[in-house]
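Here is the promised in-class demo. Please do not try to memorize the tokens; focus on the logic of going from shape to residues.
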């Protein structure tokens, strides 16, 4: 087939099988390149639409498409979703019986299957490699390709061995895909998978439908509850916490307060963890409280919010975690509460880690970038994208764009704070220093005669919260460090000197009392609040109920039937014939045949 024909066939498959009118972003180019037999490296953010980049070429080309994926738990859902649109898909992994696997292997050999998912350790077996040698292979797709990176947190040793594909199947195109953006990981993928000659497709990493918000932590759990109930009542979401204990406590707290929540962390037994994950993927109106162990491959498209109750270690981590919100492109939130304690804790974790000095410095730099994002006076998205080397302008859909923070000349209060640290001989922790500044006569202050210091009470005009906010920024700016060897005492750095001496000014972000914030106008870019009329809303709700029941009857996740965007469009268009329904994005031929009559009847009934 020539190039032109391939492209026409690809578009036809997109429309009839998947029911989408057009390719998105770079999909068309990628599909064209791989369908024509080329190797590709695809870097696209979560929700960008990576799956179609290998699924369609696998259908265009002769033979079976082999998808290497580290996520055994999700293979069933992937195969279910393909079956729903009428694509013949299967998987080979350790959860199957020998008979089941043999049956799939036979189908692969006979070319009776379009796509087969395999775990990397399975692929590396003699048996599997022989099977693929004896079969016609359309392509190899290597999903989550960043798993080859030894420095990343998803490292899988078996991924490194995937270079054999290049050696054993030199004529089969390979496409590697990942949502990890940094240049180091990219270089490692190319090197390890021998993709030096592959065409690289790098998409913008912006996720315009995600609204970023970072608030000052006062009572984190309470703030979280307010955020969920005021902005995301009834939605699915993920809440990340640092420790297992906090995960459990947060889930319990949410449940006590009427938000359905579950827990997920590496300390739970395997069966319970797997059950909670499956439940989260299948059900609506549920919140998962988790450590970062819950992550890769959370393919649920309608996660409406991702919250952080603790500061992530790096912007890479933060971006990957928040990226799990809104894969379907609908308005979603990334919300974080952060406070002084977070900064202190993360610094301590670095100091106390076993890593060598160079590595500690790398960790420290990553943390500094993360703090910079938290304390920024300008657009969060600009900061985030800049970190990944992408230039952009103010987004209009983050907290600093929507409610610009007030900054002020903080030189004088910072000088007061630095002097107080110095006057107590750099031997006391934050709480004590703030008490000295505010002139609180505690026993400890009297014991040490700190009430006779010149700095005692010079900061009485500010609340404790305000002083904590200032101290946090002073630490973020690197003027003060926390010494964990010595009771978390505050120490001045060399950078503090010019400020203390009065040569250097310091601009600070104004502390804003955590008020119960009504959500800012959602009319801005990327954020279209439900634009359904009451009548359309009623249809939408009915469709959602129908979807829950249908999904249960078919034993698949609800989003596999239709996603929210498709249901919303149906509610608006109110199709009363099958041909009207066919025109809607997300309705392919197979789904039209399976559900068309039911939907049309349901809508006619409501007219
Ligand atoms: P990724 O793997 O990059 O995170 P997915 O492949 O899961 O993204 O796609 C994310 C969502 O976007 C899915 O719900 C998918 O059906 C949808 N999608 C992908 N490509 C298109 C397209 N061309 N038109 C409409 N929707 C699309
Ligand atoms: Zn912004």
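The designed amino acids, position by position:
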């Amino acid at each position: 087939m020539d190039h032109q024909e391939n492209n026409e066939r690809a578009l036809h498959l997109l429309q009839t099988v998947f029911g989408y009118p057009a390719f998105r972003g770079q999909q068309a180019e990628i599909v064209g390149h791989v369908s024509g037999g080329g190797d590709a490296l695809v870097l696209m953010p979560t929700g960008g639409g990576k799956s179609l980049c290998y699924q369609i070429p696998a259908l265009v080309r002769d033979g079976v498409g082999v998808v290497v994926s580290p996520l055994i738990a999700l293979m069933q859902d992937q195969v279910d979703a393909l079956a729903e649109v009428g694509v013949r898909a299967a998987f080979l992994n350790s959860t199957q019986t020998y008979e089941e696997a043999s049956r799939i292997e036979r189908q692969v050999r006979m070319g009776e299957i379009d796509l087969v998912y395999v775990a990397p350790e399975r692929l590396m077996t003699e048996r599997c490699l022989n099977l693929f040698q004896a079969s016609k292979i359309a392509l190899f797709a290597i999903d989550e390709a960043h798993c080859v990176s030894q420095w990343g947190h998803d490292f899988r040793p078996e991924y490194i061995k995937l270079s054999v594909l290049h050696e054993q199947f030199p004529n089969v195109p390979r496409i590697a895909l990942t949502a990890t953006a940094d240049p180091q990981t990219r270089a490692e993928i190319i090197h390890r998978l021998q993709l030096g000659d592959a065409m690289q497709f790098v998409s913008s990493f912006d996720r315009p439908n995600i609204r970023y918000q970072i608030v000052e932590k006062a009572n984190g759990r309470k703030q979280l509850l307010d955020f969920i109930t005021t902005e995301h009542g009834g939605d699915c979401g993920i809440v990340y916490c640092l420790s297992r204990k906090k995960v459990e406590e947060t889930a319990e707290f949410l449940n006590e307060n009427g938000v359905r929540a579950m827990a997920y962390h590496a300390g739970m037994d395997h069966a319970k963890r797997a059950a909670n994950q499956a439940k989260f993927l299948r059900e609506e109106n549920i919140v998962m409280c988790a450590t970062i162990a819950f992550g890769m491959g959370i393919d649920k498209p309608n996660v409406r919010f991702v919250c952080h109750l603790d500061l992530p270690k790096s912007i890479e981590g933060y971006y990957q975690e928040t990226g799990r919100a809104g894969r379907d492109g609908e308005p979603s939130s990334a919300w974080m509460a952060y406070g002084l304690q977070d900064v202190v804790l993360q610094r301590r974790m670095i100091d106390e880690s076993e890593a060598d000095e160079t590595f500690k410095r790398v960790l420290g730099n990553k943390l500094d970038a993360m703090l910079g994002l938290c304390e920024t006076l300008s657009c969060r998205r600009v900061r985030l994208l800049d970190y990944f080397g992408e230039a952009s302008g103010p987004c209009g859909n983050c907290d600093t764009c929507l409610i610009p923070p007030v900054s002020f000349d903080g030189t004088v209060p910072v000088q007061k704070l630095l002097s107080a640290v110095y006057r107590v001989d750099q031997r006391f922790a934050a709480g004590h220093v703030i008490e000295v500044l505010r002139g609180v006569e505690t026993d400890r202050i009297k014991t040490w005669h700190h009430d006779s210091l010149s700095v005692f009470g010079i900061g009485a005009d500010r609340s404790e919260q305000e002083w904590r906010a200032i101290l946090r920024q002073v630490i973020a700016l690197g003027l003060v460090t926390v010494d964990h060897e010595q009771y978390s005492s505050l120490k001045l750095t060399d950078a503090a000197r010019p400020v203390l001496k009065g040569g250097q000014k310091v601009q600070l972000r104004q502390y804003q009392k955590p008020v119960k914030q009504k959500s800012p106008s959602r009319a801005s870019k990327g954020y279209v609040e439900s634009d359904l009329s009451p009548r359309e809303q009623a249809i939408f709700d009915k469709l959602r109920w129908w979807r829950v029941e249908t999904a249960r009857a078919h034993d698949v996740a609800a989003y596999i039937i239709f996603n929210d965007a498709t249901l919303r469009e149906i509610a608006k268009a109110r199709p009363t014939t099958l041909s009207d329904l066919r025109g809607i994005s997300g309705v392919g031929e197979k789904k039209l045949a399976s559900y068309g009559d039911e939907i049309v009847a349901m809508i006619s009934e409501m007219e």
